[in-house]
User: Which sequence fits this backbone?
């Protein structure tokens, strides 16, 4: 690759890099809210295990999130720093790990792409997910939302990817890969109530496809993974706290017919939003162009490759609908945005695989029909220039990009108000403290003010009462 082309690819990567660095830097502006103080207070008084047992018996079986939610309090206590700083550090670490996991997972889908084009793919995939996120706050800046839905989404696309690549290439799982998938599936199933069902369906489809395509079944490997997933799912659904939480839900919960209809209706709304999102459209076009520029597969295409490619997205759509239905049935309400984030990650990854596989299948037809595609090669200036420009536009006009532009003037002020609030509560000698509400309310970083769970906030700071007051 000549220096000019290398420079063009570096510039093409730049929009995604800047976008991700900005979002990562904003974790330093995030501040704990209501539930965060409850977990920090309980961790300080009871420790990790006792807190998990208390919530497992009284509210939820989501053991992995219950552990992760206590990290800021534990870091604050162990490091002698403020909860505000510990919270930002925890979010930044989780964000960096999730970025790396998404990058590596999607990179494995393009075995014949390497170097800077592969870096562009990985970075732009992560940026596109965040750009299209139904709630970037719930994906990056509020820990209770992050830990319940981001880790299981990452585990799901990892397991789906491994299953798809093995079926596509006719390869087998190694023992180490099967154990890693089992561990990831077990942990993901302990994050929320529907991920286990997703994963069991993916494993069942993997086994079925191997049989249909005449490949080694590796039944023992699939069984190991399925048992681990099922074990995690049983632990979470049998938690005593689930019945108490269900009893507190509104009257609409528990109606199957209504849940089927409402979930279908709202899932269509979500799908329409997905298909209109600039970050999604830009990413899928980039996927197709890079697949065409890569060298063709060495093995001949199979007659059922098209059905296989479309089946990946069909499976993801069914999983997303099940998530919408499960939430509607259990709560009587439409699915919350933080749960939609998990559906988005799965759907975008699956459509990426579908577009890549279909483009590979129709490679000859596309190249013969559109002569201009011949100029879009890895070693030409045209392809990275086009992709870079397209990425700038798609991220700038994405949902998150638009939100950043609207609220950018409020972010620093919100952070300063959060710092002043912490100083007031940490240094006041009074047992009853009047705490001003926020003047600015950027939805990128917050949803609830000091008015929620004041008992937990007071208990964490050693106060008897917190009184929210209007800002001066």
Assistant:
């Amino acid at each position: 690759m000549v220096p000019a082309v290398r420079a063009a690819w570096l510039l093409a990567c730049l929009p995604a890099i800047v976008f991700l660095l900005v979002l990562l830097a904003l974790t330093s502006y995030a501040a704990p809210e209501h539930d965060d103080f409850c977990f920090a207070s309980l961790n300080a008084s009871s420790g990790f295990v006792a807190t998990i047992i208390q919530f497992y018996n009284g509210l939820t079986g989501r053991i992995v999130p219950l552990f992760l939610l206590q990290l800021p309090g534990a870091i604050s206590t162990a490091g002698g720093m403020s909860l505000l700083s510990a919270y930002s550090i925890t979010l930044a670490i989780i964000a960096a790990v999730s970025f790396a996991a998404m990058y590596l997972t999607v990179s494995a889908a393009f075995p014949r792409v390497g170097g800077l084009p592969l870096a562009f793919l990985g970075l732009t995939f992560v940026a596109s997910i965040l750009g299209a996120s139904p709630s970037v706050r719930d994906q990056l800046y509020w820990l209770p939302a992050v830990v319940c839905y981001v880790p299981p989404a990452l585990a799901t696309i990892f397991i789906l990817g491994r299953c798809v690549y093995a079926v596509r290439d006719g390869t087998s799982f190694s023992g180490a890969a099967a154990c890693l998938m089992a561990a990831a599936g077990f942990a993901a199933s302990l994050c929320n109530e529907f991920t286990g069902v997703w994963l069991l369906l993916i494993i069942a489809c993997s086994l079925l496809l191997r049989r249909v395509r005449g490949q080694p079944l590796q039944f023992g490997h699939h069984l190991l993974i399925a048992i681990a997933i099922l074990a995690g799912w049983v632990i979470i659904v049998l938690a005593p706290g689930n019945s108490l939480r269900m009893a507190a839900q509104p009257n609409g919960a528990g109606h199957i017919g209504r849940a089927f209809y409402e979930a279908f209706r709202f899932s269509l709304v979500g799908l329409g939003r997905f298909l209109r999102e600039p970050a999604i459209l830009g990413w899928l076009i980039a996927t197709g162009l890079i697949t065409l520029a890569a060298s063709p597969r060495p093995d001949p295409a199979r007659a059922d490759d098209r059905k296989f490619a479309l089946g990946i997205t069909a499976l993801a759509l069914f999983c997303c609908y099940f998530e919408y239905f499960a939430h509607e049935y259990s709560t009587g309400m439409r699915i919350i945005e933080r749960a939609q984030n998990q559906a988005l990650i799965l759907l975008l990854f699956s459509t990426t695989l579908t577009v890549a596989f279909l483009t590979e299948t129709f490679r000859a037809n596309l190249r013969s029909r559109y002569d201009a595609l011949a100029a879009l090669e890895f070693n030409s200036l045209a392809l990275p220039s086009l992709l870079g420009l397209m990425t700038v536009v798609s991220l700038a006009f994405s949902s998150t990009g638009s939100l950043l532009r609207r609220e950018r003037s409020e972010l620093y002020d919100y952070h300063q108000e959060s710092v002043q609030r912490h100083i007031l509560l940490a240094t006041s000698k009074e047992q009853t403290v009047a705490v001003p509400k926020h003047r600015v309310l950027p939805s990128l970083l917050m949803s609830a003010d000091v008015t929620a769970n004041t008992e937990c906030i007071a208990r964490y700071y050693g106060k008897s009462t917190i009184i929210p007051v209007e800002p001066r």
